[in-house]
Amino acid sequence: MKKRKTNFGVLIYKLDTCTIFEKAPAVSGQNEVGNFELENEELQVELKHDYNTIKEARNAVSQTLKSWQIEDEILWKTTSGFRFVYVKAIFPQSTDQLSNLPEELKYIKDYNETLIIASCKYPPFPETLFTSEMESAWVRYRKAKIGIGESIQSASYYLLTVVVNFTGENMKKAASILFVDYKILKKIGELTSIRGNNFTSRKSLSRNTLELSIIEKHWLDIAVKNILIQAATMNGDRKPSRIELNDLPNLQNTTHNKSYTQ
To answer: What's the rounded Cα separation, in Å, for the pair 29 and 27?
Structure first.
């Protein structure tokens, strides 16, 4: 990877994951923050704007890096623990280098003794941009799936409200703005309201209420991931493809039709 020449500076990060990308071709992309190039597990970000401090520059870049990580978790599943750690900054003037020391790697790769995963490609540069609320919604849902913090019903409904609030409209108008069949949002609301028990339900329910079935959990998982990606894609100034109810699994059986995330 060539060192970039820029008037605004370059931030350098290291890919921190247990996965090896020895033969992966470089991936590049750009947005309003800068030009990004990932090669040999090193990411260089050529900044497009002037920043007073390295901290300001890192804050500007962090949303893209977080979106890259979440998009991989939802869509591509290329790695386990995909993230970037800060290494250094190359700025045209002296800045706050001492207060921005390199971050520690979480994964230390042992090429001789430890079994690690190899991948032939990096996850693509993200087409999404996750707001802090979208990120929180995803973290809550991901934890709920493994039984941490709250029920799937509660986390799914919170994610639904975050996506709807992103548009600033009600559910029906939000569906139109997000290019999502209104029936999908309505069904998410129904499943998160009428399924569960005293410990998992989002609302107070009758004694005869059923738990979420395996099929319903699977449908809900795909549905909430898709609407979150729709909102994050629009936040990244891109127009997503429309999602219809028939694009998701059939709730009556296990037959699957096309879907963005499964």
So the answer is: 7
pLDDT value for 164: 98
Q: What is the pLDDT of residues 133-164, one digit of tens each?
A: 999 999 999 999 999 999 999 999 999 999 99
What tens digit of pLDDT does each residue of 29-86 get? 999 999 999 999 999 999 999 998 999 999 999 999 999 999 999 998 876 678 999 9
- Residue 152 belongs to domain spanning: 132-247
| Residue 187 token pair | 């069904």
Confidence of residue 262 (pLDDT cuts 50, 70, 90): very low
The number of beta carbons lying within 10 Å of the beta carbon of residue 227 is 24
CA distances from 175 to 60, 64, 129, 178 (A): 30, 25, 19, 5
Judged on CB neighbours under 10 Å (0-12, 13-18, 19+), 261 is middle
DSSP string, 33-49: SEEEEEETTEEEEEESS
DSSP 111: T
Could you give the 3-state DSSP secondary structure of residue 85?
Answer: strand
Give CA–CA dist 127/30, Å, rounded. Answer: 10
Q: Which of 88, 108, 126 is the last residue of a domain?
A: 126
Distance CA 38, CA 23 (A): 13
Do 107 and 144 lie in one domain? The reply is no
Mean pLDDT score of the chain, rounded to an integer?
A: 88
Among 194, 181, 168, smallest CA distance to 227 is for 181
| Kind of pairing between the strands at 42-47 and 27-30 | unpaired
What is the distance between the alpha carbons of residues 80 and 74, in angstroms, rounded to a whole number? Answer: 12
Q: Do residue 97 and residue 217 come from a single domain?
A: no
Is 160 a member of any domain? yes
